[in-house]
Input
Amino acid sequence: MNTIFSCLKGTKAQNPNFFRLFSILFFLFSLVSFSQEKQKDTTKVNQLDEVLVSAIRVTTKTPVTFSNVSKEELAQRNLGQDIPVLLNYLPSVVTTTDAGNGVGYTGIRVRGSDATRVNVTINGIPYNDSESHGTYWVNMPDFASSLESVQLQRGVGTSTNGAGAFGASLNMLTDTYSKKGTGEISSSFGSFKTNKNTVKFSTGLMNDHFEIAGRLSTLKSDGYVDRASSNLKSYFLQGTYVGKATLVKALAFGGTEKTYQSWNGIDAVTMADKGRTFNSAGMFTDEFGKTRFYDNETDNYQQDHYQLHWNEKVSENWSTNLAFHYTKGKGYYENYKEDADFADYGLLPVGTETATDLIRQKWLDNDFYGTTFSANYKSEKLDVILGGGWNKYEGDHFGKVIWARYASQSELGDLYYEDAATKADGNIFAKANYQITEKISLFGDLQLRNVHYKADSWETGVVNDNFNFFNPKAGLNYDIDAKNKLYFSYARANREPNRTDYENGSPKPEKLNDFELGWRFKTTKSQLNVNGYYMRYKDQLVLTGGVDDVGSPIRKNSGDSYRLGIEVDATLKLSDKWTIAPNFTISSNKNVDFISDASGSLTNLGNTNIAYSPNFIAGNMLTFSPMAAFRLSLLSKFVSEQYMNNIDDASGKLKDYFVNDFNASYEFSTKSIFKSIVVNALANNIFNVDYVSNGADYGGGYVYYYPQAGTNFLVGLTLKF
Output
């Protein structure tokens, strides 16, 4: 699927003023890095590593609502499911999975905004696909095993690299280095023949300066849905140099995936007739009139990432980060087409037939490269970050027929379409926290971003758009006392359309004004965060409910719209053994004076609900830990009903659902071969609820659903040495 989503290219941004600013900032950055005297530094290990993401992450001193997830928290349930599923219990989060069991194609929505509107970075490097803006976790299976921490900022958040954050930004920090040599072997298995095998190692710091670490993983699953199988492999390798004030990291990571397509969904009638797991992908009628399924209706993709980071603690006040990156992606999806016109595929028939069954492959061969940089000045009252980045995407897109039932005069394997696209994306930003008084601090953040698209294909038409965005942000923090903090912020965001938007019309860029008001309360035994938000959009590209022939969601500009809500999350230590961590979001998500042409004439429907935006989301983690090495957790998630259209048509609704998972973990300390042995178990949907977390509404009664698995299990064993 991702092999088709990214079909737009862009050329180098043609904005001399932007690049002049870029050059000045880069020059200043270089001066800071090289001209100041390096002083001795006692910085802790994790502080050096955190410089990789410090330019885009926030703390409680920043007036932004966020959640942090540590390596230890991820490890509790890391038995093969994708990162969105591992983040399912965070506030305002709804996750989806095509195969129904969290392996393969998965997605995340935050505050009702779909995955294309969630900015994702890895060590500050953009990960969202440049053209679709989507995030394809299937290309990085078991990546959670190589993460040190994750931060999810809700709303616009602070300035980041890559696509604008219109629902949230998710930034990931990969493994820190280890002072001592370590190793891990872990395996898990469970329902639907799911199994994951992982090997990790670290040499520890050799000569007190150098470390080499890595991971190899394989992950396979048949999926809950029929034939929704996944065969995934991934790797992670990093070399680290550590000095008194220097950290240099070279990383190579990536993966390959072969996934049977399961993005069609299933309509209610077929679900009742053939069952919840029926998958129409690959279905065809053979020459004897028998219904069959093509056994290679698959998505095949390989993606390799290379990153080089140089962090420098220049002085007690100054630190810098400079990074270069390159990503290579190549692959195709293959499918069986019935009664395809010869002419549509550039084929010349031998006989009188004008159509034939055929098997086609649609390919993507792309390159993504660039740089990010930041310089941080920190004193007792002032914390300033200057940063930015420049990235370019180049993609070649082509298709070929590898088999046809009827003979043609054309050679099989010839290309029936071939086009290219480029996209250049550059930004610079300056953000600062200033402590005015002991209790009051101000936050400011200014970003300039330039985006240039260029494409010319039968899918997009001619595209040659240049966007210049100015994204200001400001806020105030007030420390009432040692336990209570109040904050208020305003953020402006702009965002360009993606490839699918161009395929379906003449889209406009989106604009968002985001207002946030929050209260943070923290003691030694409890923590409470309350955040109210009002997100006012202009020309928001809302989901229509439909998807195209490769599962890409179709969107259109809605004019004026808003999201208004309150988020509450808490962690309460009930005793030395019991902890509860509830959260909930109540929201109203509306299109203002929505104009519909569904009936063939324009109709003003007034205020309507925005598609895929439930008004109530709640989660909870109840944990019992009788000892440090033993942990039992009951995890609960409720999502209220939601429309899959923007016209309040009740026939296109997803029902509410309430599911519960059970997680257990125990670590045995040993005195011989292994440092410890960890046993994990996860029972998903323990009450066997029939529920649907996602769907598609094409209008006219054509509604499709993505059923999720009933009760299913995963069990894992990790050997640490």
Observations:
- The chain has a mean pLDDT of 89.
- The first strand starts at residue 10 and ends at 11.
